[in-house]
Write a structure and sequence with these properties.
heterotrimer; A alpha/beta (about 325); B alpha/beta (about 425); C alpha/beta (about 190); A: about 325 residues; alpha/beta; Rossmann fold; eight-stranded mixed sheet; about 10% strand; C: alpha/beta; Pyruvate-ferredoxin Oxidoreductase, domain 3
Chain lengths: ~325, ~425, ~190
């Protein structure tokens, strides 16, 4: 299964040119009548990967359900930058409750919608929950797992930027090894985040054997749109984990967000795949294999690896992690293992 | 229809008559029988359409309730003790968002030491959470207050905790008059949410509010709570016209005329107090009772009016504000400010310690002589405490205090009270 | 007010017995309040349950410390728990046992009490015969009805049908009825 039946990659950019496609095959964002679920004018940083990811994801979800969508949002950057009262960027019904309960709030919304449907509500209103990696893999993990195991009719989208960026860039359980954050400082014998910790929640989501789990990045936005569309075709618990670079937290240039996200995928540091009922069904293959240095070097959070005495061993360990991803998900051959 | 049934079952049947649309719950003693029964009603189809969700924690229970209420569904949950604390963040959030969730609190002590028995420390810990809090004296009242609770919460767009004494009420079989569906339908209108997540009219709920408006938003919550002081008597009167009995209200006095000593309490212990007061009245003592039904908002004017003729007030409460004394008593003192009335705090019955008529007789008689401490612990075994204090003076590593004191008390299974 | 205290072990239906007693009293138009001594829900642990019966609303919520009647569902408790605590001098006592009070070693303790208020009944055996399980609670209620006259056997049967259905209800009705007859006969000879 592939989400990119048309691959008119433009040389050097990987960007699919919408203008080469017939209108019906163009991306949701390319349409003049896109939903603009998140209006412009919000307060996200320049080059914010989360804002980009959320715009594509929620618009794609809106497109998939004809605008009949309710969003629940965890505390975090996305919540803060989109709704400084009395302004709100959201053109969808939207609720923010707490940091750690978004999956459960969405469960409640889905339950209410189910009852309303039984009472004669003609519309098929659906629910998307969203949060950052802190709100998903750490503080909201219990509610997330509960929503998964009950197979509640919720699509949960995690925008993973590998840390608590809203509070000033602290480590989360999604912070990668060796990365510097405010709580995994680049000092001491083993600078940065320690190896052997953290968790990859898409795999945990798969362990719940829910109908649909996918990962994506903001580098392959058509892939992201297609996965959201696919998720909205399915009932039950669904999970999409999107890698969203954070220029502030990662120490990258704001015009590099998409390129960094692509490097995460092309080096194998972040596997892009989709799974149904606990089994991987497709992967987005690496097109031009690259060593992990290419991904690490542009990011100041890894700067301590590339000083006067490069941390060759640490880089090698990160390469091992990437190689393992490549083997495990078959990233070089598109999952044909 | 008169029935002899368990309090939990009575509450479950009453809640079902209110046609809730989403029920979520996480099991904790002594709340379990209520949600078990409701789960059964949903499963056998007698309560429909309704979604019953078994969640993974109390935090999730309140969060699911937040979501379903915000999406326009009449929502119910129940908890107690540690469960209430575990959901505390969401408890505040539900009221802050103005979501009219009805929650039974089967009142139980808070640990450590872990204790499953009744007192009021759980609900009172959430007294400032923005929820309405109402305390039932009997199972009949518990049942009735749930019906009134939905009405009140939905009118004000504020959540309400209906508090009933764990085990003492939840697990007690007694006579209740179960209303009919027609009666409840006549009393409780369909839920019309003030705000709802609806794609036809998208709104953002729960956005960040800075210093420029936070005070005003919170003041509104306070002002809305205070409206309950007017609505509750009206709803109780209407309740009487539909159901034919007095239930609810703000406060209730008993033999208060000419009373020199007034006893103030909440919940099921009022029955034992009234029986004691009957005997003391028969023996010529001028003593009366003020039962507080509504704890939040606190009916300051009504409490003051009921107590201002007394010489002294004994606030008997199943709660303890460590480092201060009483919680209810502190509220009562505020109602009596500038009046020349002695207010005694009596901490009683915490962790399920039985409150007996024998102890109350002694307490009230000493109080009449102004012979009790400002903060009194009813039936406190001071010797056990002193022994532990001695132990701690004698030895730095004196070990876990609760375990040592339990050993001093001896085998408790053999004792009844 | 008439106050009954029931002692037994977890799994013997102690709490259910108190509840059914309250239902039986309710069926006779009386006010009744049944409640357990909360906490121990482990099988085999000592359990106490209480039932108050009155002609007016019962407001009192304290445990029953001076019972008018004691029902002991498990005689092994006699040596473990102070089951007789607060028992009134003319109170009723019903013990589930095939033995006599003498054989239980209670003869001295009970001397001077009203013998028509004291009775034993082999409720576990009766239950095994009719219900197929060692649950002495219901036959003891039948026995209590016969001994005390506080409730009628028909009310106990109504309570059984309120709590149980089908074969279990029928078995318990038979067990309660047999225990009722046994105690009636014992009383006649007392």
């Amino acid at each position: 299964m592939s989400f990119q039946p048309v691959k008119f990659y433009q040389t050097g950019t990987f960007t699919v040119g919408n203008r080469l496609l017939p209108p019906e095959e163009r991306s949701v964002q390319a349409q003049a009548k896109r939903y603009n679920s998140i209006n412009s004018g919000h307060r996200a940083c320049q080059g914010c990967g989360e804002a980009l990811g959320a715009r594509y994801a929620i618009d794609a979800a809106m497109e998939a359900v004809d605008g009949q969508l309710i969003c629940a949002n965890a505390t975090g950057c996305l919540e803060v930058f989109s709704t400084p009262y009395p302004e709100t960027s959201w053109q969808v019904p939207w609720i923010h409750s707490l940091f750690g309960n978004t999956a459960a709030v969405a469960t409640g919304i889905a339950a209410a919608l189910k009852v309303k449907k039984q009472q004669g509500e003609p519309r098929n209103i659906r629910v998307v929950a969203q949060g950052g990696d802190g709100g998903t893999t750490d503080i909201g993990f219990g509610c997330l797992s509960g929503m998964f195991e009950r197979n509640d009719d919720v699509l949960y989208i995690c925008y993973d930027n590998g840390g608590y960026m809203n509070t000033g860039i602290q480590r989360s359980s999604a912070t990668p090894p060796a990365a510097r954050t405010a709580t995994t400082m680049a000092v001491g014998a083993e600078p940065g985040n320690v190896f052997g910790q953290g968790k990859f929640v898409p795999a945990i989501a798969m362990a719940h054997e829910i109908p649909y789990v996918a990962t994506a990045t903001v580098a392959d936005l058509r892939d992201l749109e297609a996965k959201v569309r696919r998720a909205m075709e399915i009932r039950g618990a669904r999970y999409i984990h999107i890698l969203v670079p954070c220029p502030l937290g990662w120490g990258t240039a704001s015009n590099e967000t998409i390129r960094i996200a692509r490097l995460a995928k092309e080096t194998g540091m972040f596997p892009v795949f989709e799974a149904e009922h606990g089994e991987v069904k497709s992967v987005l293959a690496i097109r031009h294999p690259l060593p992990v240095e290419e991904y690490l070097k542009p990011q100041k959070r890894y700067a301590h690896l590339f000083g006067k005495t490069p941390q060759v061993e640490v880089i090698a360990r990160l390469q091992e992690l990437a190689d393992r991803n490549i083997r495990k998900y078959g990233l070089l051959d598109g999952g044909e293992r | 229809m008169l029935k002899q049934m368990e309090g939990s079952r009575a509450v479950a049947e009453a809640v079902a008559l209110c046609r809730p649309e989403v029920i979520c719950a996480y099991p904790i003693s002594p709340q379990t029988h209520i949600v078990e029964a409701l789960g059964e009603f949903v499963k056998d189809g007698s309560l429909a359409p309704c979604e019953f969700i078994n969640v993974e924690s109390e935090f999730a229970a309140m969060s699911v309730a937040i979501g379903s209420s915000a999406a326009g569904a009449r929502t119910y949950t129940a908890t107690a003790s540690q469960g209430l604390l575990f959901m505390a963040e969401a408890v505040y959030n539900a009221s802050g968002l103005g979501l009219p969730i009805v929650m039974t609190v089967a009142n139980r002590a808070i640990g450590a030491p872990i204790n499953i028995w009744n007192d009021h420390t759980d609900a009172l810990s959430q007294r400032d959470s923005g929820w309405l809090q109402i305390f039932a004296e009997t199972n009949q009242e518990a049942l009735d207050l749930h019906i009134q609770g939905f009405r009140l919460a939905e009118e004000l767009s504020l959540p309400i905790m209906v508090c009933m004494d764990g085990f003492i009420l939840t697990h007690a079989y007694e006579r209740v008059d179960m209303p009919t569906q027609e009666q409840v339908d006549a009393y409780l209108p369909k839920y019309e949410p003030r705000q709802v997540l609806d794609p036809a009219e998208p709104v953002s709920i729960g956005a960040m509010v800075g210093p420029e408006a936070f005070m005003e938003v919170r003041y509104l919550a306070h002002a809305k709570q205070m409206e309950a002081l007017k609505l509750i008597p009206a709803y109780a009167a209407e309740f009487k016209s539909v159901f034919g009995r007095d239930s609810g209200g703000l406060v209730h006095t008993y033999k208060a005329d000419d009373a020199e000593t007034m006893v103030v309490a909440m919940g099921s212990v009022l029955g034992t107090i009234k029986d004691t007061v009957d005997e003391m009245r028969a023996a010529g003592h001028k003593i009366g009772v003020l039962g507080i039904t509504l704890f939040r908002p606190f009916p300051i004017a009504q409490v003051r009016a009921a107590l201002q003729g007394a010489q002294r007030v004994v606030v008997l409460e199943k709660s303890l504000a460590v480092g201060l004394g009483g919680i209810l008593a502190t509220n009562v003192r505020m109602a009596l400010s500038a009046l020349p009335i002695d207010v005694y705090t009596v901490v009683a019955g915490i962790g399920g310690r039985p409150i007996t008529m024998r102890s109350l007789h002694g307490l009230f008689r000493r109080a009449e002589q102004d012979d009790i401490d400002a903060v009194t612990f009813l039936d406190l075994n001071r010797a056990v405490v002193d022994k532990q204090l001695d132990r701690e003076r004698a030895k730095r590593r004196s070990g876990p205090a609760a375990e040592a004191m339990l050993r001093d008390v001896g085998v408790v299974a053999a004792k009844l009270a | 007010m008439f106050q009954v205290r029931i002692h037994g072990r977890g799994g013997q239906g102690v709490v259910t017995a108190a509840e059914m007693l309250s239902i039986a009293a309710f069926e006779e138009g009386r006010h009744a309040q049944a409640f357990p001594s909360f906490g121990s829900e482990r099988t085999g642990a000592p359990v106490v349950a209480f039932c108050r019966i009155d002609d007016r609303e019962i407001r009192l919520r304290e445990p029953i410390m001076a019972p008018d009647a004691l029902i002991i569902q498990d005689p092994t408790l006699l040596h473990q728990v102070d089951v007789f605590a607060g028992m009134k001098p003319d109170g009723y006592l019903l013990i589930n046992t095939g033995k006599s009070f003498e054989q239980l070693g209670l003869a001295d303790f009970l001397r001077g009490r009203r013998s028509e208020h004291l009775c034993t009944v082999p409720a576990t055996e009766i239950a095994l015969r009719h219900v197929g399980r060692p649950v002495p609670n219901v036959p003891l209620l039948g026995g209590f009805a016969a001994m005390s006259g506080m409730i009628r056997l028909e009310s106990v049967i109504k309570a059984i049908n309120d709590k149980f259905s089908g074969k279990v209800a029928a078995g318990n009705v038979a067990a309660a009825t047999e225990a009722y007859k046994i105690v009636r006969e014992e009383m006649a000879h007392a």
